[in-house]
Write a structure and sequence with these properties.
seven-stranded mixed β-sheet; alpha/beta; globular
C-alpha cells in the first residue's frame, strides 16, 4: 500500500479517557496515545495513533469522514513496481502450500487493486473474482470484480480468500470477517498479510515508518492483535509467519530516509512507478541513498523475519465450525 510521508512524532504516555470510541475494539480496554501530531505532507493534515496496552493494536485518529480522495488513480498505479511478478509468484506459492493446486477451485481476492494477483492466480487454475471499492479506477481487463461482498450474490462459496495488505484499510475489519464466513466453503481458508506494527523496523523508526500510511491505514496490527481479530470474528488461526521481502527491505530503507532526511518517499515512489514532486537533485539523492540502504537493509530484514519481528506478517485462518455447520 502506498504510504504518505510523516514528520517525526514522539510517543505520548498519557492514556485517552476510556470511552467507547477510544477503547480497543478487540480487548475493550482504554487505548493510549502512541504517536501524536503525525503530519501528512501532501495535505497538511495531522493524525495520531492510539495503542492497546494488551494486544498492541494501533488505531488511527481521527478518521476522515470521506476516505475516497485518498484512493485516486495515482494511488493504485503499479502497486509493486519492479517486484510485482516476484511478489505474486511468492504469494501463489503460499496459497499452494496451504491449499494445494488451484485447478477447479475458487479464490476471492479482497482489495484486488489493479488485479495482478487475480490474473496470476488464473494461470494456476484458480477461478473467482475480486473486491475493490474503486474498481472502475483500479481494474482493466476481463476480470470479475465487485465493490462489496453483498454484490457477490448467490455465488458458490470460495475455497480461499486473500487479503494482501487490505485489513488495515477497513473501517470495520471485524464486521467484514464475520460477513465473509457466509461466502467461504466449510474448509475454506483466509490468508491475510498486514504490516507488522510490532516489528523491529516499526519500533526503530517510529512515526517515520513507511508502512503507517496515514490516514489510509486505519488499524495497525501486531501478531497478537491479528490473532485476536480473527478469534473475535469467528476464525481459528492456524499459522502466523513473518516477512514479505520487498515490503521489509524497503520498510527499512525508506523509513530510515524519512527519519534522517524527511522528504516525500521519493525512493519508494520511484521504484513503484508512482508520480513524485520535488527538485530533481533531491529525488536523485533519495533514489541513490535508497538503493544503498536497501542493500544494507537485507540483513536486518532477514533477521527480524527469522526472529518473528518482521516488517510484515501473514496470518492463515479458517472459520470455526459451529454446530449448525457441522450438521449442514
Amino acid at each position: 500500500m502506498v504510504p504518505q510521508t510523516m514528520s517525526r512524532a514522539q510517543p505520548g504516555p498519557s492514556p485517552i479517557a476510556p470511552t467507547d470510541e477510544s477503547d480497543c475494539p478487540l480487548c475493550h480496554v482504554g487505548m493510549r496515545v502512541r504517536f501524536r501530531d503525525i503530519a501528512v505532507e501532501e495535505t497538511g493534515e495531522t493524525f495520531r495513533i492510539d495503542e492497546c496496552p494488551q494486544c498492541g493494536l494501533g488505531r488511527t485518529r481521527p478518521i476522515p469522514t470521506d476516505l475516497a480522495p485518498y484512493y485516486d488513480a495515482a494511488y493504485y498505479g503499479k502497486r509493486h513496481g519492479l517486484t510485482g511478478r516476484i511478489c505474486n509468484r511468492r504469494r501463489l506459492g503460499f496459497v499452494r502450500h496451504w491449499l494445494g493446486p488451484g485447478m477447479g477451485r475458487s479464490l476471492l481476492d479482497f482489495g484486488c487493486g489493479e488485479g495482478d494477483f487475480l490474473r496470476a492466480a488464473r494461470t494456476q487454475g484458480w477461478t473467482g473474482c475480486g473486491i475493490e471499492r474503486s474498481w472502475p479506477t483500479a481494474i482493466s481487463g476481463d476480470l470479475t470484480v465487485v465493490a462489496s461482498l453483498e454484490e457477490l450474490g448467490g455465488r458458490k462459496p470460495f475455497d480461499c480468500t486473500t487479503f494482501w495488505h487490505v485489513l488495515e484499510h477497513l473501517d470495520d475489519p471485524i464486521g467484514t470477517l464475520k460477513e465473509l464466513r457466509g461466502y467461504l466453503a466449510p474448509d475454506g481458508l483466509v490468508l491475510a498479510a498486514v504490516p507488522n506494527f510490532g516489528s523491529w523496523q516499526a519500533r526503530a523508526t517510529g512515526a517515520s515508518w513507511l508502512h503507517l500510511d496515514l490516514p489510509r491505514h486505519l488499524f495497525h496490527f501486531t501478531a497478537a492483535s491479528i490473532a485476536k481479530l480473527f478469534e473475535v470474528s469467528g476464525f481459528r488461526v492456524d499459522d502466523i509467519s513473518f516477512g514479505e521481502w520487498e515490503y521489509d527491505v524497503i520498510g527499512w530503507s525508506q523509513s530510515l530516509l524519512n527519519r534522517g532526511f524527511g522528504g516525500r518517499n521519493e525512493f519508494f515512489k520511484t521504484v513503484s512507478g508512482r508520480p513524485s514532486s520535488g527538485p530533481r537533485l533531491r529525488k536523485m539523492f533519495h533514489v541513490t541513498a535508497g538503493l544503498g540502504l536497501s542493500l544494507l537493509s537485507a540483513v536486518p530484514a532477514w533477521g527480524e523475519s527469522r526472529l518473528g519481528r518482521g516488517g510484515t506478517l501473514i496470518a492463515v485462518a479458517r472459520p470455526v465450525k459451529t454446530r449448525a455447520s457441522v450438521h449442514a
